[in-house]
Design brief:
By secondary structure, the chain is of the alpha+beta class. The chain contains 17 helices and 40 strands. It is globular.
Length: 670
């Protein structure tokens, strides 16, 4: 077994590998760029080596620097994680020449399966069911249009060396092929240094289901069940689960055996994933094979009890798999939510900044629930524009699917993140969505259910009653605390007032205290808007970030943040401002004028912090609705900004190469 390994990666996956290596008694070496000098993975590892500037192309993607770090520290093997150099056969070969073991498959398998075009050809030759498409070289946009027309719309334009949704576009008609081809090539070149793309038929309403395989160097290979990865946005996975609520035992077995056959055909040695698209009739088609550890591997670990990183290390060290196919049992259900640094209310645009608060839910086993959080950040960490926007992977396990989803819902409600915009509100809303809870999924789920983007959720009558109850309980404790401050001339609140008004958004709700007293823990009976009596019980104290308790017997975990004259309460994807007031104060509050936001309708604002790639218009130019105005790159993704209506450009405030903050004015219109 190895005595020391180097992790050629960063963030949560580097931390994940370090944890298993530590468990196995193996010393670890981290590498880091200028941007990651104070990163968590650097602190966790036994040693750390600086490898260059912040851009990945000058640090994490430079194989020579990784090899030099191995020689400097005496690392015997390299675990590549995912992304970066994880699927580059040339990196694997370079390590072999230096006598350093690559913890992953051999170059032959990486070449055969790692390249999306070559893997399709190989799968066709091996008689694996594949999606119709064009796997040859696509010369230009005209050629792309011709191919797409022959295949039939819609088509998928995809980077050959791609992954993580980068370098991928769907074209529904001829007019979208040319722009999609150009954007896919540009992103592929920027992210992977390889601008080749291929085109294939896009299966309507497909599920994205993948099979985890594991193989050693002694001819043994097996599959560890499947993962349902259909909840995607811009072809990037958002939430995953294992097993799939769609597959039956027969289909699972067929997909698993086909995946193992493919792995054996390329002499695969390590953990790998065979991805399929599955139609409504359970017909499945080979999509690609990822010759690395997948981001979503924790859900497989939770339902099988098998540490995939440990198995990768043991296989790389030459050991024989101690597991046989008959040993693999799928136990319970696991769900993973990817926490991204992005604003769900602004079409999920990237967000950067410092984590002023980062308080994930407690990990561990709680009765029949398991909570796991794979992360590479801590409070005070900075989310930069140089790398992927994923902050953490929150996972829950339970005996049944709905219990795992409910556990995830409560864990998300308890996950406190401040300093950046993030997608927790969307993830929390997803856990309540009827279609998700019923398992009626497809890769078009987000686009279909949120066609106009994700908007703030408006609470219904019962939810408003819960929020108003929390706001009232918090305000009573706040006033009681003020009464106890020394040196006050008179109590702030005096005796317990029975009648209150709670403003939630623009609604004013009456809150009547029926029975109870102010104390910690607190238990009150109150009525909201003349409704039935609700019992509110909690041991919340002023200053706690999470209000935990029950309302009418319903278990609640809600985030509490003070705002002027009230609270911001976040719960199950809802985020509302609540003010609990005495009736006379509420009368006066109704008279306050509303602040009107500034008019930005004649401006193009930068929707996220990013780099201006191009400006497609000139001052004085007339543009039509839908035409491209500018392209802004953020976190390796190019975002095309288009005109929402017919306009005339009056002034350009930015030019290519400019780094802009969110809401910076790119151009103005007449």
């Amino acid at each position: 077994m190895f005595k020391k390994i180097l992790i050629a990666n960063r963030g949560e996956i580097a931390c994940r590998v370090i944890k298993t290596a530590r468990k196995m008694g193996i010393a670890t070496v981290a590498v880091y760029s200028d941007a990651d000098r104070d990163a968590v993975h650097v602190e966790m590892a036994d040693e750390a080596v600086h490898i260059g500037p912040a851009p990945a192309a000058q640090s994490y993607l430079v194989a020579e620097k990784i090899i030099a770090a191995c020689k400097e520290t005496g690392a015997q093997a390299v675990h590549p994680g995912y992304g970066f150099l994880s699927e580059r056969a040339s990196f694997c070969e370079a390590l072999e020449k230096e006598g350093i073991v690559f913890i992953g498959p051999k170059p032959k398998a990486i070449k055969a399966m790692g390249d999306k075009i070559e893997s399709k050809k190989f799968a066709n030759a091996a008689k694996v069911s594949t999606v119709p498409g064009w796997l040859g070289v696509i010369e230009n946009a005209d050629h792309a249009e011709q191919i797409a027309g022959e295949i039939g719309y819609p088509v998928m334009i995809k980077a050959s060396a791609g992954g993580g949704g980068k370098g991928m576009r769907i074209a529904w008609n001829q007019s979208e092929v040319r722009d999609g081809f150009d954007r896919a090539r540009s992103e592929a070149k920027s992210s992977f240094g390889d601008d080749r793309v291929f085109i294939e038929k896009f299966v309507v309403d497909p599920r994205h289901i993948e099979i985890q395989v594991l193989a050693d160097g002694h001819g043994n290979a097996l599959y560890l069940g499947e993962r349902e990865c259909s909840i995607q946005r811009r072809n990037q996975k958002v939430a995953e689960e294992a097993p799939s609520p769609f597959l039956d035992a027969k289909t699972r077995k067929a997909m698993g055996e086909q995946s193992v056959a493919l792995a054996k055909a390329v002499d695969y040695q390590s953990a790998g994933t065979v991805e399929f698209i599955v139609d409504k009739d359970k017909n499945f088609y080979f999509l690609e094979m990822n010759t690395r550890l997948q981001v979503e591997h924790p859900v497989t670990e939770l339902v099988t009890g098998i540490d995939l990183v440990e198995q990768m290390i043991r296989v790389a060290a030459g050991e024989t798999l101690a597991i046989r196919q008959g040993d693999v049992k799928l136990n319970g259900w696991a769900v993973e939510s990817r926490l991204y640094a992005e604003d769900p209310y602004r079409n999920f645009l990237p967000s950067i900044g410092r984590l002023t608060r980062y308080r994930p839910p407690e990990e561990g086993t709680f009765g029949d629930i398991v909570i796991r959080n794979d992360t590479g950040v801590t409070e005070g960490s900075e989310i930069s524009m140089f790398y992927d926007p994923m902050v953490a992977k929150l996972c829950t396990w339970a005996p049944t699917r709905l219990k795992a989803i409910d556990a995830m819902s409560e864990a998300l409600d308890s996950f406190v993140v401040d300093g950046i915009e993030h997608n927790i509100p969307f993830l929390a809303a997803l856990m309540q969505h009827p279609r998700w809870r019923e398992g009626r999924l497809s890769t078009g789920f987000i686009a279909e259910e949120y066609p106009d983007g994700f908007a703030p959720i408006v609470p219904d009558k019962d939810e408003k009653a819960v929020l108003a109850s929390i706001a009232t309980a918090v305000e009573l404790l706040r006033r009681d605390r003020l009464d106890r401050l020394g040196g006050r001339l008179a109590p702030h609140s005096g005796i317990l007032k029975r009648d209150w008004v709670v403003k939630i958004g623009a609604d004013y709700l009456s809150a009547a205290i029926i029975e109870g007293m102010i104390s910690i823990p607190m238990e009150l009976d109150l009525s909201i808007d003349g409704g039935k009596a609700l019992t509110v019980a909690s041991d919340w104290r002023p200053g706690d970030l999470i209000w935990r308790g029950t309302v009418d017997g319903r278990r609640i975990a809600a985030q509490i943040r003070p705002v002027p004259n009230g609270l911001r309460i976040a719960w199950k994807g809802m985020s509302v401002t609540a003010q609990a007031m005495l009736p006379r104060i509420a009368e006066l509050e109704r008279l306050m004028p509303e602040k009107v936001p500034p008019d930005t309708s004649r401006m193009l604002l930068c929707p996220m912090p990013g780099l201006v790639v191009s400006i497609a218009v000139a001052e004085g130019q007339e543009v039509k609705a839908g035409e491209t105005l500018a392209v802004v790159e953020a976190m390796k993704m190019e975002n095309v900004l288009r005109a929402e209506r017919d306009l005339t450009v009056s002034k350009l405030n930015a030019r290519p190469g400019d780094s802009l903050a969110v809401d910076a004015v790119i151009m103005e219109f007449a």
